[in-house]
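Checklist before submission:
- one chain only
- standard amino acids only
- sequence pasted in full

Submission:
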Amino acid sequence: MRIGILGELTRFEELKQTLPANADIIYNELKLPETFGNYDIVFDLNFDDNTTRLDWYLEAPYETLFILSSALIEIQSLKTDLSLSNNIFGMNCIPSFIHRKVKEISYRNEAQKLLIPLLAQKLGWEIVSVKDRVGMVTPRILFMIMNEAYYTLQEGTASKTDIDTGMKLGTNYPFGPFEWCDKIGIKTVVKMLENIYDDTKDERYKICSLLKSERYLA
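Returned file contents:
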């Protein structure tokens, strides 16, 4: 199996650790050097920030499966003719999420959803399929917790260290909300919350002013 990967080196290394050992993996930070027909699967880890590349994938052969980083966006909203392209999937590729045991893969229609078990078999992954929505599932929950943590900090109820410690002891999370925010990157956290709020208008995702101000210090 031949796998092509686009994206920065740190996320490539995180993804590579989860792929089959016998896979032929080709990495290129900016673009793939050959036609897509030479690959079984292509991962675009920076698609959230380079959505114009969708035209590449729409013109590619059906046999190639494309996994696009799409937690911050809704792929379907970018093109009306995507319903005909069942080989294009979304994935939660936010830093520190790629290596998780269970991968979140998004689909846009029921026909496409039927292909996800094939994808899981090819990669040897445990996959949970979710509809194509901004934030998917785990990021929505985690980023909402980060936002609430900043509200708690802003109110002066507890320090960052106390909140992180309390969350890890109380929920058995591997990281506290501020530790996770540092791993993901505060600018990504703010962008995600802005996009989810625009999508849902749910007050739970309205960004804490302290979190928004810290973005400019990062």
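Reviewer check: The chain has a mean pLDDT of 90.
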